[in-house]
Amino acid sequence: MLGKIQKDLIKLLAFFGGLFILIYLGFFLLFRSSTPSWLTAEYNEHLLSYEKEMQLGEIIDRYAIKGQEIDILKNRRIDSAMWVISSRLKKQIPISEYDYKIKIIESEMINAFTIPGGRIYISKELILFCESPEQLAAVLAHEIAHVEKRHTVSRILKEFTISLLFSIISGADTVLLSELWKTTISSSFNRKQEQESDEYAMDLLEKSNISPRAIAAFFRKLNRENLDYDEKVEFLMSHPHNNSRIKRSLEYKTSKGFKPIPFDLDWKSIKEDL
Amino acid sequence: MISQEFVDLPQPDQLSSREKEDGMGAYLMMFAAFAVGLPLPVVNLIAALIYYSINRKKARFVHFHCLQSFLSQIPTTLMNWGLLYWALQVYLFNNYSETNFFFAYIVLVILANLIYIIFSIIAAVKAWKGNFYYFLFFGPYAYKRVYSRSNPLRYDNEDKKETPFNLNKPPY
User: Fold this and answer.
1) Residue A38: its pLDDT value, please?
2) Are A218 and A138 within 8 A, CB to CB?
3) Is a pLDDT exceeding 70 seen at residue A197?
4) How far is B50 from chain A (nearest CA, A)?
5) A2-25 per-residue burial string, b: 16 or more CB within 10 A, e: under 16
6) What is the ipTM, given to two decimal places?
7) CA gap B101, B118 in Å, rounded
8) Does pLDDT of A233 surpass 60?
9) What is the mean predicted confidence (pLDDT) over B93-109?
10) Which one, of B131, B137, B124, lies nearest residue B34 by Cα?
11) Which site among A21, A27, A190, A248 would you substitute to test the B interface, given the most B Cβ atoms closer than 10 Å to its Cβ?
12) Which pTM does this prediction carry?
């Protein structure tokens, strides 16, 4: 009797174990990549070509400046500093379809966002908030990652269908454009996209001889000033779990010969000049 | 040999309708608790334990079905707990990522729950008709616990005369 019961147990375990292995193999064969796309809801970024994306970015940018949604800040010193930082990062991007245009805007919020076509906007407040040019580079690298991974496109495609986007490109409708503008600046990237671009940013920072710990330093300062869930930091509301991001950036292992090269910028006086 | 080691099994017409209903209730009760406790898979186990402790003394037949139902849902409950923990880690705390392994586990848990539900329905119907239904492993185990002569539990519906103790003894 007891021997039979034990045999039953073995049968049961073998059945469920076999079932699990079968299912796992099925998943493995069906989805060679680490995650099946139909479960994680990947968006069809490839539907919008790079040329169309550039065109769209240009239209949105023109609308934003003309419609006075944003005010571009003009300051020679910060522009040149920005050029120094961004060119160092840009050199390390392997092959890029994008021609990055980085603009500084007048804003009370600590904010940084991207619209399609490699256009990145950084608020004046964020620059004042950064303690070093390395921290600004970290933010910039993160936004570049969103562009390179085409998260900006996927975010818009989530809200607008492809045909609607083409109608905007062909005959720019102002109502649609304002909707588009609101979507690009208000809706957030999902957590997976954030994680992906954090990883990309850390990689990019290492390649351009900037310590990836700058990300941790930036978030630490945010935490320290208790701005975490403040309305002022809209940009960070879409970037939850600062602590886990700090942890990840501190845990990032740089290669053996890595030596950070500091920027040759007088950051204090640049900030005072703003 | 078997007749010495185990108590005779009751046939359907020897069982009262009350016993049959209680036997069926053991499975149906779990369903209700299972549905309530689906997001937090601990309710069904508690309910099963309560039902088991209340009803086991009523009759051997009821005890057998309660025990089988209770035991058979322990593995599924554990699997559900595992899934809950894993899913929270993936989606809420962001510590693990979604891997094929994770999705395979989700499918396995869904299948295991389905298997459990289907076999429970079959067993509930059989119990209502006064039949025995043995799950793999759990059925024989429950049978061995309940129907062996070494089972010390006294049942309400059984003759008290069968007591093995001789309280009254002769003088010498």
Assistant:
1) 45
2) yes
3) yes
4) 26
5) eeebeebeeeeeeebeebbeebbe
6) 0.72
7) 26
8) no
9) 81
10) B124
11) A27
12) 0.55
